[in-house]
Amino acid sequence: MHALFRGPRARSTARRLRGLALVGTAWALLSCGVVPHGGQQGAAAQREAGAGRAKALNILLVGLDSRAGLSPETRDRLHVNGKACDCTDVMMLMHVSADRRRVSVVSLPRDSYVRFAPHKDGNKPPSAHRGKINAAHEHGGPSLTVRTVEQATGLRVDHYAETDFADFVKTVDTLGGAKVCTRKPLWDENAGLDITAGTHDFDGRNALRYARARHVTPPGDLGRVRRQQQLVAAILHRLTGERAADDPAALLRTARAFRGTVRTDDGLTARELVRLAGELRGLSPARTEFATVPIGRFDYRVPAWGSTLTWDEPRARAMFRALREDRPLRDEPRLRPPHGMRPVAMEPGLIPVRIEGTGEASLRVRDALRRNGFDVLGGAGGAGGTGGGTGPAAAKSARGTKEGAKDATITYAPGYDREAQVLATALPRARTLPEVGHGRTLTVRPGTGRTELARIVHDRSSVEGAPASAEALACDPTGGHGPR
Predict the structure, then answer these.
(1) Domains, in order of start, for the chain
(2) Which residue in 85, 199, 250, 470 is a FRET match for 330, CA 20 to 30 A apart?
(3) Taking Cα atoms as reference points, which of 435, 454, 342 lies closest to residue 388?
(4) What is the number of other CB atoms lying within 10 angstroms of the CB of residue 329?
(5) What is the pTM of this model?
(6) Which one is predicted more confidently, 12 or 446?
């Protein structure tokens, strides 16, 4: 790869960056070269002309967890107060296919426990110890970050880019905002996010809040990564859609304004960006895919590193092999759950369930849920267990469901939405009904019709990070892999 940064500002510039703003990096990279000619036909001609000489490209997009240079007022305005570190907060590896007809973006979770590339820590002898992938920058800057990613993935990194909080906001505002859709209201006090269900046109500040939110569904870092991917998908659609074809000159002016929002290696020149973006003109959401490296163990505890994530090595190798061979991730069978199984994000054995009613229908549902690993309490219609099969709330629930309803009903206490979603995945046609006062045990009441059953597998990575097109991610952070 080319030198990472030029000039004396290299190290000091890198220290000012912040991970969540890498979303803006991706947008800026794909915006910087929008050229005012050709439209869709011109883009196809450029791709065909370059197909014989082009090669696939891998671009590492990173941002650092640093608030250096931000005033207290700016931190408050952007809702980014908190402890920082000189480490990468988010990393995305963007693969551009050799024929320029496809872009694959793979997120590398910041707490991934990997072996660093050989390096020196201060006065210590050179080593290649393990640690969280986000700490590679702290140990050796952009160079070690790139070499560690190359070692962990087996892929060559051709280019490197990064940006910061303020520039992320500028990028979104310069573009005219970002359109995001959510099926449910989202509220995260820590990120300053409070939005209703539906479609929203975000300015830069609100887009940043959406990208930073961790305490909404789906929760944690994987959920946050998916929301960042949604933002990137939305912006790519805007850049390569009808608006880009209608007024390419205006987008060229916008692209030039983006030039100050991204730092790159010295090989990713303006000319290279113009050429690449020209070849990518007309890229459809269906040909843009996003994924997160498959995780084998969550909350893997390591002395001195705390809670980490370990990769599912067989599936991670399959993912990176597909990129190395320039194949679509969605076509890779090893990245999907076993045939006939539906993935869920929570272990079914942690979810207590009670079956209401008696007879063959209730026994059939009970046996199917037990085979799927649910903690089914007592027998169908029997006693046993705690927290929600009997009492006033349960009686009210039973009266509240239509006695003659064809499909099953799942009743649960507010706050147990994730558990209800897992159960609903095993009962695909069941209706979910939150009930104030209901206990922690979920209740299933079979309908008058034959209850549809499904086999499930605990596979959080497939729910929150499986390969999905930008089209599929538009209003669904699971990309169609999660519950309805």
Answers:
(1) 9-332 (3.40.630.190), 344-458 (no CATH)
(2) 199
(3) 435
(4) 22
(5) 0.81
(6) 446
